[in-house]
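Regression check, inosinic acid case 442:
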Amino acid sequence: MGHACVFGLGWGDEGKGKVVDLLCPAFDYVVRFNGGANAGHTVCVGDRRFALHLLPAGILHPSVTGVIGAGVVVDSAKLIEELDGLIERGIDPGGRLKISDRAHLVLPYHKIEDQLSEKAALGKKIGTTARGIGPCYADKMRRTWAIRFADLLHDSTLIDRVVRIVEQKRKMFIALYGEDGGLDEVAIAEDLRRAKNRLASSICDTTLLLHIANQDGRKILFEGANGVLLDVDHGTYPFVTSSSTGPHGIGVGSGVPSHWVGRRIGAAKAYATRVGSGPFMTELSDTTGDRIRDAGHEFGTTTGRPRRCGWFDAVACRYAAQVAGLTDIALLHLDTLSGFDEVGLCTAYRVGDQTLRTIPAGITTCEQIKPLVEFLPGWSEDVQEVRVFADLPKNARDYVERIETLVGSPVSLIGVGPKRSQTIIRGDLKSMVGDIEIAAQI
Ligand code: IMP
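Current build output:
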C-alpha cells in the first residue's frame, strides 16, 4: 500500500521532525496517532526554524493534509497558538488540518493535576513535561470524565458536564494535595467555546477519511511522537509517557490497521539522550556528556530542559527495533560526534555477574545496569557538507556500519546537520525522498 511510519527508537527527541519533513513530498497525508503537546518537532526550512508540538510536521508542505488522529490528546489552546504562529509566518494550514472527532481534549485541570502530582510525588516523580498528558489519558480510560472533540460539536450539555467534572477534580486535588491549583471553571468553559469556534471546521471522522484516502490510492505517512523507550507498555515503565509510541500504536491511534504500514523508519541519534527521570543505561554524567550536549544543542524543544546525554545504546535500540518491526534506521546528528577521539557503543548490559542483551522489565534491575561499551576510533572532519555515504570519513562509515550490525537494520538516512539539505540518503529510500534542494524552497 506504500504507507510508512516515522517514529523514535529512543526516549524522544531523536529528530523525527526532520525525517518526516524530508519524506513529505512522497505522501498525501501525515498522521499523528499518539501523544500530545509533550512532543516537540523542530524542522529547519532554509534559515527558518519551526518548533511544532501538536501539528503534524508535514503541515509545512502545501500538498499535505495533516491529521490529528483519535489517539492524540489535544490541548486546544496550544493547538490554536501553534496555528496562529504558523499563519503569522505565512503558512496557513486552512482546510489541510483534520482533527479526529474521537480525539480527547487536554483541559487546564489535566495540566494542574500533572503539576500537583509531580510536586507531591506520591508515587515516583516521572519528570513529565507538565502538559497534562498522563491525567488526560487516565481520564480517557476512566471514561466518565473524558471530553472528546465530538462532544465539543454535538453535546449541548458539555459546559454543565465540565463544571461538574471541575467540582469533582477540586475535591480530589484538595484531598490529595491540599490545594486546588487555581482551578477556574469559567476560564475552562471559555477555552471550550474558543476551541469550538476556531477548530469546528477541522473536526471530522478521520478514520473514514483515511480509509477513503487508502481506497483512492493516496499515500499516508504516520508520525509517531515521543519514542519506543517511552511507550506505556514497552518502555522503561513507569518512567514513560502514557501512549503507544511506536507503529503498534497506529491501529489504536488512527483507526487504520497497523499492517497497512510496511515501511517503518525508526529515528535514532548517533548517541543517546533522555529528558526527565528514569534509567538511562549509557548516560555520561561527566565532561564527555557535557560535550555531546553542547555540540548537539541538547535542550528540550518543549520544555527547554537540558537533555541527559550518553553513548549510543545498541541494546536498547535493538529492543525498540524488535517491538516496532523496524525496517530502516534514520541516524541523526552524526555531525555532533565529529572531533571525538573515540566514540562509544553499548553492546550489552552487566547486572552483577550477569550479562543482559535486552532491556529488563524491572526498573530496579534497569537502575543497576552497567553498560559494556565498545570504543571505535573517532573522526575529526566536519561532515556537514557530505551528501554521499562513501564521502564520509572511514571511521564515521565504520561507526554507522557497526550500528547496522548491532541493531540488525540498515541505516537508510543519515543526518549530518540540522538543515533539510544536510542529509545522506541510502538505498531505495532515495526513490521515496524527493529532491531535497527543491523541497528546501518551501
Ligand atoms: P509526559 O509525556 O509529559 O507525561 O512525560 C513522561 C516522560 O516522557 C517524561 O520523562 C518526559 O520528559 C518524557 N517525554 C514525553 N514526551 C517526550 C518527547 O517528545 N521527547 C522527550 N521526552 C518526552
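Comparison notes: The CA atoms of residues 35 and 72 lie 5 Å apart. The first strand starts at residue 3 and ends at 8. No diff flagged against the previous build.
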